[in-house]
Amino acid sequence: MQAIIRGSREHVSSEILEDADSPVVEEAFERTTLAITRDKIVKDVWQRETRKPLPVNADSDGYVTRFEIQFARICPNADSEQASNTKKFVVYDVICTLDSTTQADKSPAIIERRYTDFLKLYEALKKENPQLLANVAFPKKKILGNFTSDLISERALAFENFMDYCVSIPALRDSPSFLSFLQDDDLTRASRLLDERRNEAAVPILENSFQLLNKVYLDKSRQVLLLLCRLVCACTTSPISHPSSIKWTDLALRRFDHVSDTEILVLYIPLLNTASYLYWQKGLDAKPINDRLEEMGRKGIKIKDTLTLIQCLHTMEPRSETF
Predict the structure, then answer these.
(1) DSSP 8-state code for residue 307
(2) CA gyration radius for the chain?
(3) Tens digits of per-residue pLDDT, 71-115?
(4) Nearest Cα residue to 176 out of 217, 135, 131, 234
(5) Which end of the chain is more exposed for a tag (fewer CB within 10 A), N or C?
(6) Contact 322/309 with Cβ under 8 angstroms?
């Protein structure tokens, strides 16, 4: 199955996110640099030696979204204290890239998922669109032998093909079930950290999630803009704003230019107010932002005493963050 993606997007990977030393990417690759032989499991870590070749065909922008599984690990590790008391399972590192026919994506997004996560997605999509999944093979459950190199290799390839197929079919890609698979676990972790006022730990998780959605969906899609606003909130709601707060706020302001989705536009005034305060806090010139707010006010739009950005997000997509 070949992934074919459509539409246009702002290629943030080159503009902002081309950071091989980012905490998410660095942690993911450090985690997998153990002693590994080709398609073997050493110290409970599996690695496929070869990488996918660059795509032959791409969309009108010259890019294609692809999924790849290079690493997997058996949990808990045999050396851990929980190994004897906890049922083992395999965690797959799912790498999402936005490649061209001539250059590989330098800022991959990486998420961790288990067999049960893929199975839940497959069953949900098959229930929603049975005709689209009729000829899609999915690896069956096994009672024994779940931790062999051969089985992990087989499942990894099947999961890659399944994800590439999903992202190539609009009805599957735009399904709430597919979006939930991509982001829900990570947003839950980030929300918990924000509740604990650990914004600095939540920001890298949200950055990685934004990278992922930005490779799958169009740059001004509802999914991407909601995640981007959530990232802005994580960067700006602590007493001392995150070092990346200006970068993400500026990107959000650019993304909201010419947005026509009325449901998403309710975030615009809170975003402008957040940006205005952030610029003042940083000693930057907030006049263009304040001028935009005044312009909106002259049009009869309420610009003062409105909900905060995180409050607006909570009404649209409830999470556990307090506000």
Answers:
(1) P
(2) 21
(3) 999 998 655 555 556 788 999 999 999 998 888 999 999 999 999
(4) 217
(5) C
(6) no
